[in-house]
Specification:
By secondary structure, the protein is mostly beta strands. It has 1 helix and 33 strands. The protein has one domain: Methylamine Dehydrogenase, Chain H (7 Propeller). It is globular and about 65 Å long.
């Protein structure tokens, strides 16, 4: 089943975590790209996790499986992965399974055997398992690293103790989620827990995590702030900022207040080119009809991490699409692309999966690229650009595939690849990252 156990909190969200390296166009120097896709062997409830790997043909965009892959993800139901700058280590967040061995994890029936699996990246793209680490909270849902590759952060839907919620967030915080922070050893890639230097327990012990408001959906690191997106359809969605210290990994409450965003179906918060984007899904009525259109909301970060809405306001998604889950600003900063997961629980004729694209007229104004929407596989979970900046890929849950598109460098239109556009996976995809090197 698709990973929506906490409602939209587990609708897979952010900006592509792919790592791109500079390229040259000399005859003997070109970029070798590798695409990694997390997922499960099949759609069965036990969610045995795998990582598929492909080498990208820099001339055609064609994908060839890396010899020796897929490999085990090191756990069950992988939902996120991040590749450190420098491309030496890959980390995969495995959510685990509930008490009955399924993937339908909730606060009442939490995930078990969750972990963070570390892999070394070989020169041929092959991944070799290293060590396994564990978040401090319960039901982990997101994984990010800072730009220097010094710290790794995990967003847990449920904090391990309600008492820690009150200590950090105030007396009204009877429950909360949390962020677990790890320092990354630059040589070995090992993770070491960063304890909370600002908040101690009633017994005087430092908390091993940083509380965030209840029902977290997604989080992002941008401009020395960690912003957590939380909320439900009944409470509305809001952002909560921590100041981030890049020298020691500490998170400090910059303003002890939740900023209401006046939306109720947020799916992701992402950062690209100095802009914070929040993706918002349209509400669906009982009869399956669309009550309002999904949208992209652009912000900048103001004082103490507050989000400042940008002129022009929200940008509507294409009316033929639904459930935007990921956003990509391509390498030259000319175009924005949104992967739409689609709504499979609606009646016939409802919005479907696909990619919408926008021209960036200035830092905050987006105009639709002609010819929308661009096709994808069924249920895209992520969207990435290859290191040579020629191709864009989505990994798709519903049809267990990767879709490749050629990027028109003049118009931003996404065209089919010359050989084939779709590549088969062993099972449903959940996330993807891009890696590259120059030969």
């Amino acid at each position: 089943m698709r990973f929506t156990e906490f409602g939209k909190a587990l609708v897979v969200s952010a900006l592509s975590l792919g790592v791109a390296v500079g390229i040259t166009s000399c005859i003997q120097s070109y970029t070798v790209g590798f695409l990694y896709v997390t997922g499960t062997v099949t759609a069965q409830p036990n969610g045995t996790g795998i990582i598929s790997g492909f080498k990208i043909d820099h001339n055609t965009g064609f994908l060839t499986p890396i010899n020796g892959m897929p490999v085990s993800s090191g756990g069950a139901n992988p939902v996120r992965a991040t590749l450190l700058s420098g491309s030496r280590f890959l980390y995969v967040l495995n959510r685990g399974v509930n008490s009955s061995g399924g993937s339908d994890c909730t606060t009442a029936d939490p995930c078990r055997n969750s972990n963070i699996a570390q892999f070394a990246v070989g020169s041929n793209g092959l991944l070799t398992p290293q060590e396994t680490f564990f978040s401090q909270g319960v039901n982990p849902i997101r994984l990010i690293s800072d730009t220097s590759g010094s710290y790794l952060m995990v967003l847990d839907h449920d904090a391990p103790s309600d008492s820690g919620c009150k200590l950090a967030l105030g007396a009204n915080a009877t429950s909360c989620g949390d962020i677990t922070v790890f320092q990354i050893n630059a040589t070995t890639g090992r993770l070491q827990l960063v304890v909370n230097a600002q908040v101690t327990s009633a017994g005087g012990q430092a908390l091993p995590y940083f509380p965030v408001p209840v029902d977290p959906i997604d989080f992002v690191l941008s401009s020395n702030f960690v912003l957590t997106l939380s909320g439900t359809s009944s409470t509305g969605d809001y952002a909560f900022p921590y100041s981030y210290n890049s020298s020691n990994g500490q998170l400090t409450v910059s303003q002890n207040a939740q900023q209401q965003l006046n939306i109720h179906q947020a799916t992701a918060i992402l950062s690209a080119s100095g802009v914070i984007y929040v993706l918002d899904n349209e509400p669906i009525t009982v009869d399956g009809s669309v009550a309002s259109q999904s949208q992209v909301l652009p912000y900048t970060i103001g004082t103490n991490g507050a989000l400042q809405p940008e002129p022009g306001g929200a940008v509507p998604d294409d009316p033929a699409q639904a459930n935007p889950v990921q956003l990509l600003v391509e390498s030259k900063g000319k175009w924005v692309y949104v992967a739409n997961d689609g709504d499979n629980n609606t009646t016939s004729g409802a919005a479907q999966s696909g990619i919408t694209g926008y021209v960036i007229e200035n830092p905050f104004q987006l105009t639709e690229i002609p010819g929308l929407p661009f096709g994808s596989g069924a249920g895209p979970q992520c969207i990435v650009e290859d290191p040579s900046n020629q191709f864009i890929y989505t990994a798709n849950y519903d049809d267990s595939s990767v879709t490749g598109k050629a990027l028109d460098q003049n118009s931003g239109v996404l065209n089919n690849l010359p050989k084939t556009t779709s590549f088969t996976l062993s099972g449903p995809a959940t996330w993807c990252v891009m890696n590259g090197r120059t030969d």
